[in-house]
Design brief:
Blueprint lengths: L3 H14 L4 H18 L3 H5 L2 H10 L2 H5 L8 H27 L3 E5 H26 L6 H21 L4 E6 H16 L19 H15 L4 H18 L3 H4 L3 H10 L12 H25 L2 H30 L3
Helix pairs in contact: 1-2, 1-4, 6-7, 6-9, 7-8, 10-11, 10-13, 14-15
Length: 336
C-alpha cells in the first residue's frame, strides 16, 4: 500500500504548480490525512490522484487562479523569489568575505560596492523581470528585461575592473549575515491574500478596444497562448460582444477570469522558448561551466576553501542536470 506521505508529497507539488503554497495547502492536507485515516484505504483510493485533488482545490478558487500564470505564480512571486536569491547570495558573501578578510568585517571599495550593487540589480531584473512581466500581462516587455540585465552585467564588470579599489570602509560580516537571513525569512513567509480592485487585470478597462488589447496580452503573457491563436480567440470575443450589442466589460465582468477560461480550453500551451526545458538545461550547464573553471583555478592557486565550495556546487549542479534530463521524457510521455 502506498503511504500517505508519498501521496502528500505529490499533492503538495501539484498544488504548488497551481499557485497554492505550502502554508495554504497545509490545512487541506491535514483534512485529507484525517479522511484517509478514517477510510483505512490506500490514499490514492480514498482521496484520488494528487493531480485531481489539486485541480479540485484550484477550481474552488477561480479568482485566485485567474491572477496566476501557467506556473501558478503572480508577478510578486517572481519578485519574491529573486529577492530570496539575493538574500542567499548575501549570506554567502558574508561568510566568504569574513573568511577571506580573516575577521568579522569585510573591507569595502568603490569598485566592489558599485559592482556588487549593479550585479545585484542585474540579477534581480534578469531573474524576476521576464516572468513577472508575462504574469502581469505584458509579454512584449518581457524580453527587454534580458537586455536590461545584460547591460547591467556589463556595467558591473566595468565597475569591478576600472573603479578605484582603495578601501573606503568596512561592513560588519555579522550585520550583513543577519540582514541576508532576515530577507530570506521575510520572502518565505506566506503572503496575504490580495483583494481584487476595480480597474486592475481582474476587472479590465471599460474602453472596448483597451479591453480586447488587454485580453490578448493576458492570453499570450499570463497563460502562454501562442500569439496567433490568441488573436483568433480575441476575434471570437469581438464577434460575440458585437452580436450582443453590449460592452465587453459588461458581458465578461472578470477579464482575467474569462482569459483563464479560454486558456483552460486550449490543449497545447508551450510558452516562450526561454522558459522551456532546453533553455533551463543550457543555463544550468552554463552555470556549471563557470563553476568548473573557477574551481579548477582555485585548486591550481591552492585556495582550498574555494575549491571545496566549488566541488560541492558542481555536485549539486550535476544532480540538477540529471533530474532535468530525466524529467524531460517523463513530461513528454505524460498524457494531456
Amino acid at each position: 500500500m502506498t503511504t500517505f506521505d508519498d501521496w502528500e508529497t505529490s499533492a503538495r507539488w501539484e498544488m504548488g504548480e497551481r499557485g497554492i503554497g505550502y502554508h495554504e495547502a497545509t490545512p487541506l492536507i491535514e483534512e485529507a490525512r484525517e479522511h484517509h485515516a478514517a477510510s483505512g484505504q490506500d490514499p490514492w483510493a480514498a482521496l484520488g490522484p494528487p493531480a485531481e485533488f489539486a485541480a479540485d482545490v484550484a477550481a474552488a478558487r477561480p479568482a485566485d487562479q485567474a491572477r496566476r500564470d501557467t506556473h501558478g505564480r503572480e508577478p510578486r512571486d517572481y519578485l519574491g523569489d529573486a529577492v530570496f536569491g539575493l538574500g542567499v547570495i548575501g549570506v554567502q558573501i558574508a561568510v566568504v568575505g569574513a573568511i577571506v578578510a580573516g575577521g568579522l568585517t569585510i573591507p569595502v571599495t568603490v569598485a566592489g560596492l558599485t559592482g556588487v550593487v549593479t550585479a545585484s540589480a542585474a540579477a534581480l531584473v534578469g531573474w524576476a523581470g521576464p516572468g513577472a512581466l508575462r504574469a502581469a500581462g505584458h509579454p512584449r516587455l518581457a524580453p527587454w528585461a534580458f537586455v536590461v540585465s545584460a547591460i547591467l552585467i556589463m556595467l558591473a564588470g566595468f565597475a569591478f575592473v576600472t573603479l578605484p579599489k582603495e578601501r573606503i570602509g568596512e561592513v560588519p560580516a555579522l550585520l550583513l549575515l543577519a540582514a541576508s537571513v532576515a530577507v530570506c525569512w521575510l520572502t518565505t513567509r506566506p503572503g496575504r491574500p490580495r483583494a481584487p480592485r476595480r480597474g486592475d487585470a481582474v476587472d479590465g478597462p471599460e474602453d472596448a478596444e483597451a479591453w480586447f488589447t488587454r485580453l490578448r496580452a493576458l492570453l499570450v503573457g499570463r497563460f502562454d497562448i501562442a500569439p496567433a491563436r490568441a488573436g483568433e480567440l480575441v476575434a471570437q470575443a469581438r464577434a460575440h460582444v458585437a452580436a450582443t450589442g453590449s460592452r465587453p466589460c459588461d458581458e465578461f465582468p472578470s477579464l482575467a477570469g474569462y482569459a483563464h477560461d479560454l486558456a483552460q480550453s486550449e490543449p497545447d500551451r508551450p510558452g516562450p522558448w526561454w522558459r522551456g526545458d532546453t533553455a533551463r538545461l543550457l543555463v544550468t550547464a552554463g552555470v556549471g561551466i563557470v563553476f568548473a573553471v573557477q574551481t579548477v583555478e582555485a585548486a591550481v592557486n591552492g585556495v582550498w576553501w574555494v575549491t571545496v565550495c566549488g566541488v560541492l556546487a558542481l555536485i549539486a549542479i550535476g544532480f540538477e542536470l540529471r533530474d532535468r534530463l530525466r524529467a524531460k521524457p517523463l513530461r513528454a510521455a505524460r498524457p494531456r
